[in-house]
Amino acid sequence: MASWIEERVQAFLPLIQSLGVEDEARIAQLCLQEITAWRERGLAQASLNSPMTAMRKGIKGIQLTEHNIWVNPGNQKEEHIALKHMNFSKEEWDRIKGTTAKTVLTRMGNQQFIDRPDELVRIVSALLLEKSWPQLVVGVLAASGRRLSEGLKTAQFRAETDYTVYFTGQLKQPVADLCYEIPTLVPAPLLIEALSHLRELKEIKDGEALTLNQVAHRYGPKVRGAAREAFGHVLPAQAERQQIAAKDLRAAYARIAVHWYCPPQKSDRLYAATILGHIQGVASEEEALERMDSEEHYADYLIGDGQGNQNGAKGIKLGEPGVVVLKAFQDPPETEHPQTVESKTPKKKRGSSSSSNKRSILQVMATTRARVSERRKPGVSEDDVVVALLDEAEAREQALTQLTPEQLGFTTEEAQMIRRALALTPEQDFLAFIRKALPKEAKMRIGTTQRYKEVDLTGLTTSELEKQHKSAALTQERIRRTVIALMLYNQQQSNPALRARITQTAVHDMMGGRFEHIREFLTAHEAAIAEHHRTLEVPEKRSAKVDLAGISIPEEAEVFGSLFLPVHA
């Protein structure tokens, strides 16, 4: 619900909390004053539906007692006495619903085409990697279909599959601890990481104490501006508006989600209403159907074919790696109905090919069959063993399709760079990205090794060494020479305070390179370096007078061969 409505509800309920049937005149006066306040806001007739619905729902939450019960003659149900007066007349309800229906019909008669959903989503992926909060907010809203205040303040996502999350924090039609599965237009980890980063930004943290209404006023204008800048060329504005608004991202999300993920045999209206949260929570069938009407407010877009016609296909991405049907739309498992003794259905002849559970003789070696038999346990058939092995193999394949950069040990910065590269190319599958990149790297390394395996790096001068192509051996030789240069420097200092301890930082300051390579070399030669420090009484902390940049690495290769540090320990 809108933040101003929430504030009105929270302010009104305490006024009637202690009132009952004996105070009906006072209740009627308070209700009239409240409804008058709504009208004075200049709301359109159709917009009066929202505060009335929210207020009546709040009143229904007050515990009924003998003191405040009223029997509604229309439905013969016991209700709070305030509901008698917090209501519109039947005539006004008819006008409100008529105005709303006219608005919906007008909008549905002017639907716009999204001709390039893939390009729109590539933009969304790129926005989720931005550091600026307006771009991040737009990316979160467009990828998840949530409202502005949800994305900024209340939404929480928990990964379920590669492209679905469980969402909590819905603002409209709130239900305690409401949590339901929604699809994401981008990989779920990317959305979750972006939301986490967004909430840590100072600009967003500064608004934690704001009301929902204040949140909309503070952040709304910049979010609208960022949305127009990002999607102005791929997402058309509605007929009655010149520019897109933040809520258009929610409508576009619903339409693309149907196109990509809705099972073809399922209703697109039902699917959209479910993922937008309109029919979540406990509701009767009648209430659910009434709530589904809200989905029509988001039917502003259609998927176009680029030729001015609609592409009405649904679920086109189902079956792709990592893409599954929402649990709410999965077909229930089929149950077997064994034949009874009285069944008149004739038995299948042995070997009949029409049996749904017919046996098949696998063409396997005797040794293979023996391995299957070895895995059998009491009460376990050969078929059970084979099924278990297949399930295990399929689980491993599925795990590979869900592989993320973080699982391979990449840093957050490296993972973001990888996802940025994936977002900017048609290839959004991380596993396919790895399979394409690794052979290139392997080929390059093999070629480099074959070209330079005959070169004795330890026999080159330092100048010649710097001209060689990069390789693991070259890195080790450069580190070795840097360490020996530090040893030579220490031996030349008569004052122990001016000697430099050989550490990762010291070596890096002199030659650069990656810390893990330096750490590997120092660990391999830990004993020799420790003996050097002990013999020369090298201080634990380096003096500010020691200028590592001024320490030169000798040119002659013979200098390095005279000391005891080999290339490999």
Sum this structure up briefly.
The chain has helices at residues 3-16, 24-39, 49-60, 90-108, 117-127, 133-144, 148-154, 188-200, 202-205, 212-231, 246-261, 268-275, 285-292, 366-374, 382-401, 412-423, 430-452, 462-465, 472-491, 504-511, 515-524, 526-536, 557-561; strands spanning 69-72, 77-80, 112-114, 156-161, 164-168, 179-183, 301-303.
Structure description:
It contains 23 helices and seven strands. It is mainly alpha-helical. It has three domains: 3-108, no CATH class; 112-328, Telomere resolvase (hpI Integrase, Chain A), CATH 1.10.443; 459-561, no CATH class. It has a three-stranded antiparallel sheet with strand order 4-5-6, covered by helices on one side. A two-stranded antiparallel ribbon has the order 1-2. Strand 4 (156-161) and strand 5 form a beta hairpin. The longest helix has 23 residues, at 430-452.
